[in-house]
């Protein structure tokens, strides 16, 4: 996965678990053991999804960049991920900080959570109207595979929005499994983007 640097207090990168997004930085990998028919089918699906990408409004893209800047990772670097989709007649954007994966040593391959703080007050300032603010313990109703975790969920209308339609914004305590690791944690303790 390649990251996109987002200026802010720390080194933060962005990834999307939803490859249907415009400007997605999700890198697709085709493996040599995959059959030619499957590769063609994947390419056709990606092309079809790419055509759907232009439907996300510009104000939503701008909001995603602004909200990603509100993460403050405890480590010097981190990768912010998001999942954005039009769900049940409104936009839904879920943000998370990607896990770290240990590289080398006896814990090679083990994933570890990257600690972070998130400025909820500044996020609330992005809204002209807040309909609900909820702390949730997660289950599988998000359409993502998430192990134990929690989410802060805000439903409301963004100041930058051209419409009066509500948007759902979630801050996940851990990334969905589909996201893969966001950072390499080296044996010497250094952290690098994957």
Q: What number of structural domains do the residues give?
A: 1
Task: Point out poorly predicted stretches.
Answer: 1-12, 18-34
Alpha-carbon distance between the termini? 6 Å
H/E series, N to C?
A: EEHHEEEEEEHEEEEE
The radius of gyration over CA amounts to 17 Å
Report mean pLDDT, rounded to a whole number.
Answer: 78
Largest sheet: 7 strands, mixed
The rough form would be described as globular
- Number-wise, the strands total 13
Structural class: alpha+beta
**How many helices?**
3
Strand ordering within the main sheet: 1-2-4-5-11-10-9
* Approximate helicity band: 10-25%
Q: How much strand? A: 35-45%
Characterize this entry briefly.
By secondary structure, the chain is an alpha+beta fold. 17% of the residues lie in helices and 37% in strands.
What can you tell me about this protein's structure?
This protein has 194 residues and is α+β, with helices and mostly antiparallel strands. The protein has one domain. The chain has 3 helices and 13 strands. A 7-stranded mixed β-sheet has the order 1-2-4-5-11-10-9, covered by helices on one side. A hairpin with an 8-residue loop joins strand 10 and strand 11. The longest helix has 17 residues. It is globular. The chain starts with a strand and ends with a strand.
């Amino acid at each position: 996965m390649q990251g996109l640097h987002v200026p802010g207090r720390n080194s933060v990168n962005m990834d999307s678990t939803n490859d249907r997004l415009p400007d997605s930085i999700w890198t697709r990998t085709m493996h040599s053991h995959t059959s030619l028919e499957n590769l063609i089918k994947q390419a056709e699906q990606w092309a079809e999804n790419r055509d759907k990408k232009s439907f996300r409004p510009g104000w939503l893209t701008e909001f995603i960049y602004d909200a990603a800047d509100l993460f403050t990772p405890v480590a010097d670097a981190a990768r912010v991920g998001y999942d954005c989709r039009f769900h049940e007649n409104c936009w839904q954007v879920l943000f998370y900080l990607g896990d770290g994966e240990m590289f080398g040593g006896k814990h090679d391959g083990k994933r570890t959570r990257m600690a972070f703080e998130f400025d909820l007050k500044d996020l609330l300032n992005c809204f002209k109207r807040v309909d609900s603010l909820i702390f949730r313990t997660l289950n599988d109703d998000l359409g993502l595979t998430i192990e134990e975790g929690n989410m802060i969920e805000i439903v409301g209308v963004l100041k930058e929005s051209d419409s009066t339609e509500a948007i759902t914004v979630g801050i996940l305590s851990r990334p969905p499994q589909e996201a893969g690791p966001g950072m390499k944690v080296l044996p010497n303790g250094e952290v690098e983007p994957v």
